[in-house]
Amino acid sequence: MTGIPDGPFPVPAPPDEQREWVDAGLNTPGVNTAREALESFAPFVVDLKGMLTAPDRDGKRRFTESALRNVHTEAGEMLVAVVRMHGAGGSVWEYNERISSSWHSLANPAALREEERSLSHVRPYTRVKSDGSEEILAAVESVTASREVLVANLEKAAKELSQREGSRPYDLEQDLILNGQQEPGLYLAQHVRIEEPPLRDSEGNFRHPTEHWHWMAVRGNNRTERRQRIYGVTSAEVLAGMPVKRIGGDGEQIIFDPNIWLTRLSELLNAEYAMYLKTAGAKEMDEVPRAVHASKVAVVESHLVVGCPTPRRLYRIVQMSNRRDHVHPPLEFTPNDRGRALGRSTLGIYVAEGALDEEMAAVLSGSAPISDLPGIPSDAKVSEMRDIRSMQLLRELFPVDRRKRLLIRRALSESPPSQLSAPEVNRRARAWSALTSESYPNPWNPRIAEVFQLADIRDGLDPSRRRLPELLAAAEDDDGAFEELIAFRAAHWLAAFDIIDADRGSLTGQKTDDEGTQAARVRRTVKNNLMAMRNHRRKAVGVLRELASAMDEGDRRPRKVAESGEPLVEPMNRAWFNREFPKESGARTRGSSVARTRGSGSGGPAPTASTGRPPSAGTPAGTGRDGAGGHETAGRNASATGQDSGPHTSGEPMGLAAADNPSGDAPSAGSPGAHGSAPQGDGVSGLPALAEELEQKVRLLVEEVSALRTVTVRLADRAREESVAHPLSRQEADGAGLGMMTAEVELRRLRSVLDGMAEPL
């Protein structure tokens, strides 16, 4: 591509220069992408010759060393070419993890709903060589039903990306207009094949191509979308054909060759730019043309993935390179997408280290259907297929295998097992929950799974291999089967149908129920819900069976169940659940078993010696230790030390009562729970409960600070939109600032107190 002296927007280089650039790339050691991929991108490259070496003795050129970068990730490595690209180049990627929950996942075995859209399976790009053998190249490929579906998916991806900016504290589009693009995007070649035969014209020629090559943004999706918005084009048009109306023409014609439409676009923009410069000094223009807005992004630096020694894993490798930017501020994922990204990172490390095969990892990460798993029963229904995947995810994220335990520590930067903390356990739980939800129609709050006990998970979790129909059939009489269903399935199933939700930290944060405000005022921890189900076993088994039936019948609304467990006619909802499994019945008594157990590969949680029954607390949902060992829990739901709605009984350990009182109301002076202390002679220390309450308060503080920032930014944006220079009075601003300073001072004091209480490094 060569620049035009009269404007900043370059046009494609001559065909012979493009061919020379493609040949040089393929001659470069380590480059193993497809020729067609490089050919499709060559029109967008600026200064092709500047990337090439002088011809060697055989007359061959290569990419210069300065134009290449080796990028290492925990899933593998790749070779990247640094290019200067026309700002209209590249395309958004519908497989971007930040918008993964916007699609019907391949991991969801249920039928596609009318309002849902799904994405095709992305596979390594494979071509057949002249000798008949197959060769995997550094690219990926997918098959789409039609051109219409291809365009619609790209348009949906651009829309979803624009609505998920993360925590970016500035206007990205204005930043690009004013300052240009400072950070390069990372682009990967994707081959898209269209299944539907294309329409033909009167002469029998295809009206559109049957396949496309495009370079999708693995990193920099939002920048790509905003750049193209500034240019007045879309990724769908860059990939699938540019309407002539976009580039100054008339009619309905679509141009598919970028050498043609990119030339016209640049010429049009250069003309607009020249006209603006000519008239700007003479008079005030009513509107700044798009060419002026786009001038700072006329050419941008971009990184192209052109090589990979393990191309079969390339999809996972490029995803891994993007995750660290988005699981931490300032561009963090939503909690659900963040949990999925962390889980996929772990699976990627397992694959790279040979601890997990690629096929299994693809299913667990959501990029392949569950039916691809070996050994899936031929008669498995939707509920069972979801369950098989969820239980395997649980085993992988809380592994028993010592090698995997070391790898997941490395993936998540965790403490040693003996020092594993509640936040670290909860992070794994959220990853398990978020990836599990990918098999369901709608994601839920992944904090629903924050019910694991530190003592119970240090050596890993290995639920039984019993089939789900067997567990459901035996649950009324088989303690192990019932406990497995409650401990590992119930919370997710109830959340999937919006029957329960993770505690949101305040009464006003709870969702309003179908049957009025009373239900909306019930604050419950997930542990309390599960314990109430344990204490109403027959009805709980009926609920679980009905939820499984609802999944198998198109994810219909589940029905209420009678005391006998038989389904009724009316639909189940949150208010009904809170009445039938009341909060008070979820409070554990002193007689509740708190023994530490771990599921085995062939059976359920082991019965306790004292009761002969499985631990009522469950493998993830029970308590960690009793008596002198203290009450140890990883769940943030067990957070307060106050009493429940009734008086604290002398037979109930204080730590257990705390788990069912998330409101944080302090006990009255002199009461058994005052100051977080346990009753004399109870043998249970109140310190763990207080420590957990501190942890929850800090989490809520962080959430409130984030909300404060959001409100502040919204206020500033609204004031700018309405041209209000000073939306706050001096008194309002000073008052808010003083409050922030006061909070900052108190927080600094508390930090020193915390340091004094912490164990030595």
From TrEMBL:
This is Uncharacterized protein. Residues 636-648 have a biased composition (Polar residues). Residues 595-612 have a biased composition (Low complexity). It comes from the Bacteria. Residues 575-686 are annotated as: Disordered.
